[in-house]
Task: structure prediction
Amino acid sequence: MVSQRMDDAVTEVLSSIILLMIAVAVFASGALVVYNSVNTYSEDYEQPAVTIIGTIQGPYIVLDHTGGHGLSLETTKVTFTVGGDTYAGTINQHDWMSTAAMENGKWNIGEQVMFDGNAPPGGSGEIPAGGDPQKGGEEPPGGEEPPAGGEEPPEKPPKGGEEEPKGGGEDPPEEPPAEGGEPEGPSESVFEGLKVEVTVLDLRTNTVIMTGVLQSGEENADPEVITKAATLITSYSARLHCEYDFHGYTEERARKFLYWEQEEPSVIFETDWVVVGSQSGSDFEDICGLNLNTEYVFKARIRYVKDEGVQMKEGVELSFTTFDEMVGQWFFEEGSGTTAHDSSRYANNGVIEGATFVPPGILPPPDLGNYALQFDGIDDMVTVGDASWLRLYEQFSVEAWVKPFYDDTVGCAGDIKATVMSGDVNVHYEPDIVAIDDTSSGGDDENKFYLLAYRTDSYEGVIETVYLDEDGRITGKEDFISVGAEYCEPDIAYLSAENYVIVWSALDLHSILVTVVSINTEGTITRHGEQSFAGSGREPNCVVVNGGADYHILAVSLGGEITGAGTLMTFHIDASGDDIQFRATTPLDAKRCSATDLARVGHGACAIVYCGGEDDVPPGDPPEGDAAVLILQTFSVSPLGSITPLSIFSNPLSSFGEPAIAQLEGSNVYVIAVGFTSGDSGVLYTIKIHMAGGEIEHTFSDYFYLSEKSSDEPTVISVNDHMVAVVFGGNCDGGICFTFEVTSGGILSHLDTKIYDTGGFSSAIIRMKNPTERYLIVFGAGDCYAEGRCVSSLIFQQTVLKTILNKQSAYGLFATDSKVFVVLNDRQILSCDIKPEVWNFIALTSAPLIGENVNLYINGNWKAPGYRTSPLEPETSPLIIGGISGVIDEVTLYRRTLTPEEIRTHYFS
Result:
């Protein structure tokens, strides 16, 4: 053994010198083909990395080992095909190498394999395992004819240096040339005019190390078939492969596979014949109904017509073993160390990196043993090396016990977290708030000023600038002005530069007040124009709908206090904000109208939404029993402020309520929220509004009834181009915020709900300046609170997932602290809720491709269906367990679909 290792070492050291010698020899004679090892079929052994140079030198085919691993003479098979005749066998079966070179059992760098074209070993066909017929072994099977037109191969010439005969096919020199030098022999090649091919195969790994054509030419070969290694092996199925070459035969060509259990060779199964359309190529067939954990032997067979008779030929026999149903199970019971042992028969032991063993704690109903693994959610994991049985395919199941830790900093898109309540603030009733843009007036926008408007309990209108910290707490006030008594329900709109407009409703509901202020970079408030206008209604809402560089056209909508009609008004405001002029007014369509809300629809148009009724109702009479509808009206507003009605759309409601509308960012989809005065839960609608041929077209797309009682004065804000947040005042029962996903087609999907410990009858929500993922909500005071409440919450705009179990893009279970996600073929399939800080038994099953074939179970109960359209990718990356912030235990993988009954049993057992 020591001598062999020394020989290998010397071989490596001398490789550079020998390579140079070989290069000289190769380029001094004929064809040159260089190959590196390719095409690995086995997953269980390392593929040899080898460089071999093939040349034709006189009557010899010479293969030079020029780099890489030494190759075993027993497991390295070489196939020479000359003019269609095949000579094959392992190197140790032939005298293709010198005796000295064969002593250490390896084909090393600088050594040559030489095939003598004048004395090929025994005729065409495979060399049997019994030995080389030239050395007295058995004759090759099949009685194949000798090469070169049917002549017997000549005997090797006697030693003694006789004169070399001329011409191809004549006697070769006495001995093969010395290794590393140019072979001696006649200049005419015995291979002249014939096609010469070479293949070198590592039998241990079924790896083709070298294959190619050294010389093109004529061939007179029988068809060939090569059995290839099986793939996609499961517990009950496998895919068999073959390669074929019919060498010009054009009549009936077909292939099939034969297979049998290693322990029962007398029972042979056959696939059907499959007609082959091409002269050469590869093919495969999936076989099913196998027994798990069983070794099978198989081979390929081809059929063709020769001499008006049907002939058949078979490839070599190969084998594979089907998997057990359970291909991995990790209990994490070690208690210490860095190895996570696999309790299945496959011993897929994992390497623990950073994770720590902890007691699993009390967990009814099962007992999870003495230990589980805890992960920090950053870089702790268990890495299990790749193996073919871990490459799940069609039928599979995954089970795991998971206890995620609560984490405010990560979550799913739409999650409302990291909530901060600032406590009582000097905000009494009906607040509105906006973030002040410092950059428009030369500031750096770092000052966290916000403009706040509200009324006091004595109906005094107040405007303030306040500071907010990064968590949304009001930390101080910069400036304060009063707009006088008996003004309420303010609404703020941004004009330009430093200017903002606030519209107030008079307490007597017969006038409105329009106030323009500017806010400098220090937060100082300067009052500009302020004027009262006649206007019957309540709860004004305003938006800039038209204008130019030196003026703005402001639209104001008013509700009619349920028993009266609503109104749309327009005003002209100059660039300084000092001059405010009334322009036009028009009643809304319904004879009765509650509060309104409006949104800009492109330049020069707006949409107003309100709950209304068509019947006349005497002042003071309740609307009970009278049908209510949600009404959307659109108007165009000219640069002079004139109003032109465009269209109207309505939808029945269960009762009267107060609406809010907001445009989904970068979309023509608008979201409408309605809170009902009857105390019922609110409802969400989506509607598409867009300009077409000078008209505004709109169609309702979707609706969603909210799960919580959400009945008071909603506000809506677009979070991004696919998500909105909706807030309702608490009315003593607590404020509520909902998040929804909205598709480009207007389809709604509920994401999250947060109930705040606040009271109040009104609310406002804005995106904070910094951080922009945090949203500030101001709730007005109500019967339960003397002062209003200010809260802020982080709304996640993207989903941050952590790994439970993952095989790269093929399959994975991921989680936040409150949801679990299934990813197959790099695509999220389904998800459902789990609970933080407690144990959850998670089971994933996948059946064959029929309908909803993917299912997720939590604690033994079916939760969510999904489907995939193709088998899983055969991902070769390691299997990763862990990555979440939490604890994981008893992870199990199966290569079949568990039944719901089995999953419930596993949960309770």
About this structure: Residues 340 and 350 are 5 Å apart (CA to CA). The chain is about 5% helix and 50% strand. The longest helix spans residues 15-27.
